Amino acid sequence: MTRRNIEGSFHLSGGDFTNAGAASSELKSILTNLGINPEIVRRAAIATFEAEMNVIIHAVAGVMYYLITQDTIKVVLNDMGPGIPDIDRAMTEGYSTAPDWIREMGWGAGMGLPNMKKNSDRFKLDSVVGEGTTVEIIIRIKEGKTE
Amino acid sequence: MTLGRVIEILEAEVVVDAIDREMEIRSICSSDLMSDLLHFSSRPKSILITGLNNTQAIRTAEIADIKGIVFVLDKRPDKETVRMAREKGIPLMVTRLSRFTACGRLYAAGLGSCTGEDR
């Protein structure tokens, strides 16, 4: 069965822990309601949730944009945050710049970026210090087709 | 193992009940850091044993398809956490046990890790 592309976006507010995760939760519902394989939905939900939490924790604000096609789930997050000075180091499991109070909230394990990469079929990270970070997550719905 | 049996073994108080206590639980995830759970939780039908009694635990359970949460050391969730758990249909329990003892009792009773590392 074919379906039309579905796209949308969510605005994210830095520091808003009350609604933290709400965008990923809604995207997960959309994917589930489309009848996409639960394991693929789960991977997409985890990758986007980690990316969303990074915006909440580190940035002033951000936007999560999604595009669901027949073959892929694409999620792009743009934030107005401090940027990442050393991307290689940030991708290292266990490395975190989050303060102690964030760890008390359950975050700052230093696994966020590795988890995004692990759950994506394609993962791209661009960052400019002092301006912000863009994360692009692509997950294949159908084997063998990337875009 | 059923969720009801998990509740018995942990001598847990139910804060948000499950629709069905006969629901099957196959494995345990345990951490107070949510990204560690998101990294390792790979087996389906798992429960979370944690000391993190806030809404972030509920969100993480929802995202990772975790079937229920047990808070250790008698840590009680606040009203907002309970409200979110009800809304998402995630059962919440509280036990006086520590994380170590809670996991140990369930492991001894036959449940494995959600990481699959004990296979």
Strand content of chain A: 25-35%
Can you tell me the CATH architecture of chain A? 2-Layer Sandwich
Question: How is the main sheet of chain A built?
Answer: 5 strands, antiparallel
Oligomer: heterodimer
Global Rg of chain B? 12 Å
Question: What are the salient characteristics of this protein?
Answer:
heterodimer; A: alpha+beta; Heat Shock Protein 90; five-stranded antiparallel beta sheet; B: 119 residues; alpha/beta; Udp-n-acetylmuramoylalanyl-d-glutamate--2,6- Diaminopimelate Ligase, Chain: A, domain 1; six-stranded mixed beta sheet; 5 helices
Structure characterization notes:
The complex is a heterodimer of chains A (147) and B (119). With 147 residues, chain A is of the alpha+beta class. Chain A has one domain: Histidine kinase-like ATPase, C-terminal domain (Heat Shock Protein 90, 2-Layer Sandwich), CATH 3.30.565.10. Chain A has 5 helices and 5 strands. Chain A has helices at 22-33, 38-58, 87-90, 100-104, 112-118; strands at 6-13, 61-68, 72-80, 122-128, 132-140. Chain A has a 5-stranded antiparallel β-sheet with strand order 1-2-3-5-4, with helices on one face. Chain A is globular. The two termini of chain A are 18 Å apart. Chain B has 119 residues and is of the alpha/beta class. Chain B is built from 5 helices and 6 strands, in the order H-E-E-H-E-H-E-H-E-H-E. Chain B has a 6-stranded mixed β-sheet with strand order 1-5-4-3-2-6, with helices on both faces. In chain B, helix 3 links the parallel strand 3 and strand 4 (68-71). In chain B, helix 3 (55-63) packs parallel to helix 4 (79-88). The mean pLDDT of chain B is 94. The interface between A and B is medium-sized, with 25 and 19 residues.
